[in-house]
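hiii, so i know i said id send this last week but things got crazy w the move. better late than never?? heres the sequnce for the chain we talked about at the cafe, plus the structure i predicted for it. fair warning i was half asleep when i ran it
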Amino acid sequence: MDRWEYLVVYIAGRELNPDTDTKGVDVHANADKFTETLNKYASGGWELMQFEWDGNQGARTLFKRARG
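okay and structure toks below
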């Protein structure tokens, strides 16, 4: 049976996208700044399981990896 370990990471600093028309569009879609953090955990063997915006404050993420 596979065994897993889990990691919850909060990434602060969600910003408005200044180039977005606010009608029918998520004005917080400017998430490029999170890529570096997500890749850092991925390089450590962590797989992203969930990404959830937290209002205008940032995002909560859930990672898992096989326990060795």
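btw The chain is about 15% helix and 40% strand. thought thatd interest u
miss u guys!!
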